[in-house]
Specification:
GO terms for molecular function: DNA-binding transcription factor activity; transcription cis-regulatory region binding. By secondary structure, this protein is an all-alpha fold. It has ten helices and no strands. The chain has a single domain, classed as Tetracycline Repressor, domain 2 (Orthogonal Bundle), CATH 1.10.357.
Length: 194
């Protein structure tokens, strides 16, 4: 399984063959299929299940926030957590986004399930955010639009990093990107006119 995880992580689903996995693992290809049935099942076991567990932990982490949490702390938790989640499995996200739009793709069902888990996570963030906003008397918020905007900004910044940095400029570090997005979210929420 370690060989499959390493190859899928490096090369992606489409860029990895079962022959390569078998060779790296030191087993015959038929043995691989006897244990996992298909390349898609092997991918789900070695990549998607751990990824789903990471998402579940991220969702659970939002239960630790209290109404004493500042808007900036919450914004940083959201931006940093989502940025890290997407960055660590950038290629996986790209493949799942593609698979999500194509019902004939081997990973379509898994992509739908992962996207549902992500949306559940964003709902947990929204619910926590509403409690914090109520405690701080922040009105005029549009929670679904706010969460969707922040998620789109973070996911886009990670997945499109080679598209969005102006020509001739060095790409900002991850910490700079997280800091800047946290400030934008914080001031976007707290600086709204009544």
């Amino acid at each position: 399984m370690a060989a499959a995880h390493e190859l899928f992580t490096t090369n992606g689903y489409r860029g990895t063959t079962t022959r390569e996995i078998s060779r790296r693992a030191g087993i015959a290809e038929p043995t691989l299929f006897r244990h996992f049935g298909s390349k898609a099942e092997l991918f789900e076991t070695t990549i998607l299940e751990p990824f789903g567990e990471f998402i579940d932990k991220w969702i659970a982490s939002w239960q630790d926030y209290s109404t004493a949490t500042s808007v900036e702390q919450m914004a940083q938790g959201l931006v940093e957590g989502l940025f890290t989640l997407v960055r660590q499995d950038r290629k996986l996200f790209q493949e799942l986004i593609e698979a999500r739009t194509d019902p004939t793709n081997d990973l379509h069902t898994s992509a739908v399930a992962i996207s549902s888990r992500m949306r559940e996570g964003l709902r947990a963030v929204q619910d926590t955010g509403l409690e914090i906003a109520d405690a701080r008397h922040l009105e005029h918020l549009d929670p679904p639009a706010t969460i969707a905007t922040v998620a789109a900004m973070v996911i886009g910044a990670v997945l499109l990093d080679d598209w969005i940095v102006p020509a001739g400029m060095r790409a900002p570090s991850q910490s700079r990107m997280i800091s800047e997005m946290t400030k934008m979210v914080t001031h976007g929420i707290t600086g709204r006119p009544s």
